[in-house]
Amino acid sequence: MTFETKIKELGLVLPKATPPVGSYVATKFVGKLLYISGQISNDENGKLIQGKLGKDLKTEDGYKAAERCALNIVAQVKQACNNDLTKIKSCIKLSGFVNSTEDFIEQPKVINGASDTIAKIFGDIGMHARAAVSTNSLPLGVAVEVDAIFEFNWLTDVTAKFVKENPDIVVVTGDYIVPGAYYFGADQYVAGVILGRHLAKVVKERWNGELDAMIFAACYKCGELLIARMDGIRDGYKETYPNFPDDMVFRFENAEAEGQIISTKKIVTDFVTANPNMTKIVVGTNNDEGGLGALSAIETMGMEDNFFVVSHGGDTPFQEKMRAGKGNVWIGSVAYMPERYGEFMIPWVVDVLNGKDVPREMSPEHFVLTQDNLNKYYPK
Predict the structure, then answer these.
(1) Which uninterrupted H or E stretch holds 156?
(2) What pLDDT does residue 293 have?
């Protein structure tokens, strides 16, 4: 699902990006970072949302004003990226300013309007650091102003420029989709959905549909396609359990200096320490290294009956654990079978070079690898 589709699904309409009204720019690139100047609160018709929280406006009014600021931010981002939101890798930070009285203390609840909107549109890559600050006045008497920092996927833009300047060269990308290029690789989101459906089936069969929390330990700074893996798990699970609360999905960055195995082990251990009353927990990771870390933490704590682990990859680390009988906890890893990419890809590329009418995007078959079906796909 594209960001544009998500915006429509949410029933949102992006306003027109407004130009600056002073000696500054609305957006500015610095390396891979995209800075968005402060966006003030106005309604769907462009009328300013003015007033002071704690005096003229209630917290819920401020929340809606912050929502509008967030939509203005997304409009500026879209314009800066030449109307292609796939160029955004992540939202790094929002800074929110609330025009409020001295005794008003709910600034964070007000700025949640902006944070929630960004998270709904961009999913996991929309999770950001934040500041929510009180001020006794804002320009034009508006209620809320929010600025932002986004990370830009510069490689997509460079490749797109090459494709445009070299129309006679067939370009095939494998990790990211570029306008004008062919794409062969995983359908990350669909793979995640397949894994989420499998997870829901196991939770229903073995835990009678009860689940306290999902921990997603993943490389959130790696870009949209990898993050789609995690969004897919959540959405696939919610096809069966649509009322599972979003605030019980906990997201952690595991691409740290110590490596994803150690990082994920620490994430899981710390989560259990902080939430001792949770007894039915799922850990989802964007690769099998993260799965190894989760399994190690679970076994060290002796909590095999309290966890399920799902991952992406179906690679050697996962296969070895399945043959060691660990499939009761590590219940599945969605397979990509990269060793067969050439088998699928070469005939398709040959057809492209021969001028045949073929799909511009192609993905291998995705399925959930488990302890039970491992030998079918990877015989000893």
Answers:
(1) helix 154-165
(2) 95
- Helix, strand, coil percentages (3-state) for the chain, rounded to 5, are 45, 25, 35
Q: What's this model's pTM, rounded to 2 decimal places? A: 0.60
Question: In the CATH scheme, what is the code of domain 185-377?
Answer: 3.40.50.2300
Contact status, residue 82 vs residue 152, Cβ threshold 8 Å: no
Radius of gyration of the chain (CA): 23
Q: What three-state secondary structure class fits 99?
A: strand
Q: In what order do the strands lie in the sheet with 213-218?
A: 249-253, 213-218, 281-285, 307-313, 330-335, 367-369
Burial of 125 (0-12, 13-18, 19+ CB in 10 A): buried
φ, ψ dihedrals at 355, nearest 5°: 80, 15
Q: Is residue 234 within 8 Å of 214, Cβ to Cβ?
A: yes
Amino acid letter, residue 377: Y
The domain defined by 3-152 folds into: 60s Ribosomal Protein L30; Chain: A; (3.30.1330)
- Smallest CA-to-CA distance from 312 within 191, 161, 217, 134 is with 191
- DSSP secondary structure code for residue 174 in this structure: S
Q: Please tell me the distance from the alpha carbon of residue 251 to that of residue 244, in angstroms, as a whole number.
A: 15
Structure confidence by residue, pLDDT tens digits, 141-168: 999 999 999 998 777 777 887 888 888 8
336, 337, 342, 348 alpha-carbon torsion, rounded to 10°? -40
